[in-house]
Amino acid sequence: MEKYPGKKNIAVFISGRGSNLRSLIKYSKKKNSLIKIKLTVSNNPNAEGLKYAFKSKIKTYGIKFKNKSNFEKNVLKLLKKNNIDIVCLAGFMKILSGSFIRKFSRPILNIHPSLLPKYKGLNTHERAIKNKDKFAGASVHKVTEKLDSGKVILQKKVKILKSDNVKILEKKVLKVEHEIYPKAIDKFLTNL
Ligand code: GRF
Questions:
Q1: Do 161 and 95 share a structural domain?
Q2: How far is Cα 97 from Cα 63, in angstroms, rounded to an integer?
Q3: How far is the CA of 94 from the centre of ligand 1 (A)?
């Protein structure tokens, strides 16, 4: 991939609410942002986030996930057609196959609600509280064929208070997610 100055074309993949997508859209509109969000893809055609992307005049594709290989085949076509440089997973709840990752052959980033390498997979906050951890947090990392295991680009901690429950912690970490995803993209692109 050639080095910046051209803005990179981004596709954001979501499955639901899309609050991280919102934060990325907000960032992309800043004068100095390094990205242009060209499309939003969801495995769930009813995802709330798609409505917001549509309102923001971003192309949206809600593609029913009947089987992984069909879904991925269609999505790869879209990525190619729209000349996408980077895919950003933001609350995308499906695991992409190795074949998809290889065929796309450009960077895929993900935001994960834990301090990786701790708590890969689901129910991160529940596990952190159960283990009486002092800190939780969020990580932006490169996607590889091994789940939540690619190189961490940026992470930020939040303190877990004794009074925190899963819901409270989720809210605190989500705020941090919104803050670090744009920063991580900046960092990633300026270090290419
Ligand atoms: C976020 O906590 C993300 O890290 C996780 O799923 C949640 C999605 O939230 N994988 P949203 O759709 O971005 O609001």
A1: no
A2: 16
A3: 12
